[in-house]
Amino acid sequence: MLTSCRACSCSTKRASSLCARSIAALAAILIFCGGNSNASCYEDGDSVMTLRPGEPVVLCCSKPAYLNAGDKVALISPAYFTPMENVEKTVDVLRGWGLEPVVGPNVGKLLHGKYAGTVEERLSDIRWALQDPSIKAIICNRGGYGTIRLINLLSLDELKAANKWIVGFSDISTLHGLMNRSGVMSIHGTMSSFLANGGTDETSTLMRDLLMGRVPRYELPAHPQNIEGSASGILVGGNLCTIAPNVGSQADATMGCDIILFVEEVEEPMRNIDRQMRVLQMNGVFDRCKGIILGEFTNCDTDIDYDSVEAMLHEMLEKYHIPVLCGFPAGHEDVNLPLVMGAPVTIDVRSDGATLLFNIGE
Question: What is the pLDDT of residue 55?
């Protein structure tokens, strides 16, 4: 709620006019939002106006079936183009794992120098993989940009009906949001652009093991910007600049109640990371968080005078009195540990380190 206007401290007619305009502007915002707003105040005197695009939702996600030897796994490109050389190398890796890879009909197409085909072609490959009952899981070839264009073209019902693992990260975070809102877990994990390197690294083998039912437990070292505490909730999120624009859409899993939010970023300046986090804050996301996991912030310029991105976010998040686990090795680094999105998890952040548990069984 607006309690004062700086213009009121001035006695001029212009100041009175400015105050009236400010009040009128706020009234217009409240009318536009249907009164769906709230002001949160904190111990440090900070007040945050939150504009909520809809009621929070309860996320209850089913776990797709784990893979067995001989199962078909689809390779698709829902965002940016991936060279066929990488796709073919990934085919060899998956065969080495005892799986049967199948490549989407439109994989290899290139549009406008970036996209993996038209929106219709990329959508067609997703539906092909979802609707073919012989395909048991879907691995995305690359992120980049473009899945936001698919949000209103896919229905949550068709995603729920397919009930298959979708694997990817970066721009694929949009698909994770859609899957989790539909009621299906998904895997934030490595893609063809990395699997093509051989598939024998820790990141790749952990993802392989997870797809086949061996659920990891993560023990992390202490981090100077950690905020201690223990919490349980539903894991949602992904790449920050991908999920923030999705707020209010059907791909917005941050609308879930009692969530553990995971975010990571690459090649974004601090000011833009702050901007996107403020978008989440103003939409009440942090009020719904039981805890937060900060992944890798790769090549993110320190254009604001903080020692690190984590230091900046620590200052933003400490007022919420929830545990914050910093430095989780997931994102755009060589080590990108798989995470089960939509899964109930527990984080325990201590002075000597932290633990992340997936409460889904094997």
Answer: 82
Residue 183, CA atoms < 13 Å, CB-side half-sphere: 11
Please calculate the CA angle 275-276-278 and round it to the nearest 5 degrees.
Answer: 65
- What's phi and psi for 359, nearest 5 deg? -95, 60
- Sheet of 353-358, strands arranged across: 217-220, 353-358, 344-350, 229-239, 259-266, 289-298, 324-325
Residue 235's DSSP bridge partners are 260
Q: In the structure, how many helices (H) and strands (E) does the chain have?
A: 10, 15
3-state DSSP of 49-82: EEECCCCCECCCCECCCCCCCCCEEEEECCCECC
The pLDDT score that the predictor gives to residue 345 is 98
Label residues 206-226 b or e (16+ Cβ within 10 Å = b). bbbebbbeebeebebeebebb
What phi and psi, each to the nearest 5 degrees, are found at residue 122? Answer: -70, -40
Write out pLDDT tens, residues 234-245. Answer: 999 999 999 999
pTM, to two decimals: 0.86
Q: How many CB atoms lie within 10 A of CB 121?
A: 17
For 246, which DSSP code?
Answer: G
Both tokens assigned to 56:
């929070």
Which amino acid, one-letter code, is at 94?
L
